[in-house]
Design goal:
With about 280 residues, this protein is of the alpha/beta class. It has 12 helices and 13 strands. Strands 6, 7, 8, 11, 12 and 13 form a 6-stranded parallel β-sheet that branches. Strands 1-2-5-10-9 form a 5-stranded mixed β-sheet, with helices on one face.
Length: about 280
């Protein structure tokens, strides 16, 4: 009994010492000039999140908040033992309303926070494929190819070049979206392009396709602009930050002219996964 009480006393003393030591370390850290300066800078660096914009069955991504990660910033600066803003660490704070998991909405654009657009080239067939690949490579662009499962089966020779710096997504099978074709085309895309097939494509609203893709936990893209050789002039000047631009592979002049015009206006072409990202710490 005496021994048991003795051990309990030692354990209590150990726990108290541990608690007291941690408390002392915390107090010392909080008055450290590095920590004081980090806390002073919070208001200068922290940015609030912006909710995704939902209007009916359409959605535009929000923007994560970006705040100083105080503890990791402190640890980082203690290595050099001085405050340096270049050693600040940040963490993302998701908005209350996010694009994530909103599969039952049409994504109609990016959030527009950067001067970026995303070009979708829908590969209806093998027409102009080599010319399109040459244009994209020569202009050092990143684009999105939406491909039919039938296209992949017949044109595997092009997939390696198409995936180089670009992303490949699902436009159905044999011109249609159905459950079996959707899954089969996804498996082909993920096997040969190595990017996750997470987007469906609707150039016009089709709620049946939206529901089908939603059940497969895929997002549905409805482009901001559908451009062809005939309507290029009336559409091109309306393109703005965050626009998603759809052109099929048969409209080669529209592809070339759109790229040239937007590059001259200072737009950067990015893939959908970047355009639709809600990252706030960049």
């Amino acid at each position: 009994m005496i021994n048991a009480l003795k051990y309990i006393g030692i354990l209590c003393l150990f726990c108290f010492s541990f608690f007291y030591t941690n408390k002392a370390v915390t107090v010392v850290r909080e008055v450290d000039p590095i920590m004081v300066k980090i806390r002073e800078e919070v208001e200068n660096y922290n940015k609030d999140s912006i909710d995704a914009l939902i209007k009916g069955n359409e959605i535009i991504p929000g923007v994560n908040g970006c705040v100083i990660d105080i503890n990791n910033s402190y640890k980082n600066m203690k290595r050099i033992n001085t405050y340096n803003p270049n050693f600040l660490k940040f963490k993302e704070v998701p908005p209350s309303v996010s694009i994530l998991g909103n599969y039952d909405k049409y994504i109609v654009s990016g959030n527009g926070k950067n001067r970026e657009v995303s070009l979708i080239v829908n590969m209806l067939d093998k027409e102009n494929v080599e010319l399109i690949l040459h244009i994209i490579k020569s202009k050092e662009l990143n684009v999105n190819f939406f491909v039919d499962g039938n296209f992949i089966e017949k044109n595997l020779v092009y997939i390696n070049d198409m995936k180089e710096g670009n992303e490949i997504y699902n436009s159905g099978y044999d011109g249609l979206y159905d459950r079996a074709g959707l899954l089969w085309t996804n498996s082909l895309i993920e096997s040969f392009s190595y990017n996750k097939s997470m987007y469906c494509l609707n150039s016009k609203k089709n709620d049946d396709i939206l529901k089908l893709c939603s059940r497969s936990k895929m997002y549905t893209i409805m482009p901001s602009f559908v451009i062809n050789n005939n309507n290029f002039i009336q559409n091109i000047s309306n393109i703005s930050n965050g626009s998603i631009i759809y052109i099929d592979n048969r409209n080669i002049n529209a592809i070339n002219n759109t790229i040239n015009y937007l590059k001259k206006r200072g737009f950067k072409f990015v893939v959908l996964s970047d355009l639709l990202s809600e990252k706030g710490c960049i």
